[in-house]
Specification:
two-stranded parallel ribbon; single chain; 12 helices; alpha/beta; globular; Rossmann fold
């Protein structure tokens, strides 16, 4: 309490401790993710929880978003293809409606798995007709290597080292898949936005990505993306190949897109869980707790 570790003091004396996803709440109790506080976090696990973040469904809505050229819904996915041509033209790619277009919008830092992409993308592009676009800024080393990748594959890869909300939305609306192979991810917002726009996520199963993306199962018509476990180039490569192969079967791919678009990532859903958490902190009984309901306006 004398400034040695104020985070540890806060964890010990708080009524409840919350982080931004249930899986991350479990992971931070291990040496790999605990930042030397895993022992204390395990000790207080009884008051530790995780609530997934939400996104603004009104702002991120492909049916009304004014920053994309062609609006569409889950029922009018055929209109989405025109946005792919827009991205390809704007980012200097060959306009190929049948090619598998993978996008990434991210901070270019170690946490986001950029090193994994750089170890994998050369071989993937060399042995497929896929295309890759990336938007973001970060570590200068990663920025340079992504520029070099784009130079090696003109018309197939493009790197925009900048921030642009408008371009990011066009990437979400035009790409077939969204790449997010994070080394660790407390929650993650980009994969939720991508799914909202029908851009199928390819993610590593860590943190909030576990709680928001489920692996595609076309036989049982379940799942919202493609997932891999180990932080290894081969595992990412395999997931990208599986996704690009699945893209060839358009009815099943469209069904996958619709499942992703239909997932509820609203803040209303998260707000319900926060109200329950704060009610617990206040010591309210079940009868006294603030009234809430799912699927609509939170009523207090």
């Amino acid at each position: 309490m004398q400034g040695h570790n104020t985070m540890a003091a806060a964890l010990q004396y708080a009524d409840q401790v919350n982080t931004v996803s249930p899986t991350y709440a479990e992971q931070i109790q291990t040496p790999e993710y605990g930042e030397k506080l895993e022992g204390l976090l395990s000790f207080i696990s009884g008051k530790l929880s995780g609530i997934v973040n939400g996104i603004d469904l009104n702002s991120f809505d492909p049916a009304t978003d004014k920053k994309i050229k062609y609006n569409y819904t889950a029922k009018t996915l055929e209109k989405r293809a025109a946005n792919k041509a827009v991205v390809q033209k704007e980012m200097g790619l060959v306009e190929n409606p049948e090619g598998f277009l993978i996008g990434m919008v991210s901070r270019l830092v170690e946490q986001k798995g950029v090193d994994l992409i750089l170890q994998t993308m050369d071989r993937y592009l060399a042995y497929s007709d896929a295309q890759f676009v990336v938007l973001g800024t970060g570590d200068r080393t990663y920025e340079t290597q992504l520029w070099e990748l784009a130079a090696r594959y003109p018309g197939r890869a493009s790197a925009y080292i900048m921030y642009s909300d408008a371009l990011s939305r066009r990437i979400y609306a035009g790409c077939d898949a969204f790449l997010m192979p994070s080394r660790f991810e407390p929650c993650g917002i980009s994969q939720m936005i991508a799914m909202r726009y029908g851009c199928v996520p390819i993610v590593r199963r860590t943190g909030g990505l576990v709680d928001t993306v489920t692996h595609n199962d076309p036989i049982n018509e379940a799942g919202t993306g493609y997932c891999f476990d180990r932080y290894e180039p081969l595992d990412l490569f395999t997931s990208m190949v599986r996704a690009s192969e699945a893209y060839r079967f358009k009815p099943q791919w469209n069904a996958l897109q619709r499942r992703a678009m239909g997932t509820n990532f609203s803040w209303e859903r998260s707000a319900v869980e926060y109200i329950k958490l704060y009610s617990k902190v206040m010591g309210l009984t079940a009868e006294d707790q603030l009234p809430v309901k799912y699927g609509g306006t939170v009523e207090i």
